[in-house]
Design goal:
Layout lengths: L8 H5 L7 H7 L1 H18 L8
């Protein structure tokens, strides 16, 4: 739920005492994945692919 509310992964990881965000990402991947995809889609909008072929 925190990930869905745009809370940074570091802020989710700390209170549950995970030593790294890797543990949080592994355990809660099903919750975090939609937020990561949304971020990737936003980056695609900001930096669209450029056809370098000419």
């Amino acid at each position: 739920m925190l990930s869905d509310a745009d809370v940074p992964i570091e802020d989710i990881s700390r209170p549950v005492r995970h030593k790294s965000t890797e543990v949080t990402e592994t355990v809660y991947w099903h919750q975090i994945r939609p937020a990561l995809l949304a971020g990737a889609e936003a980056m695609d909008d900001v930096f669209p692919l450029v056809d370098e072929g000419g």
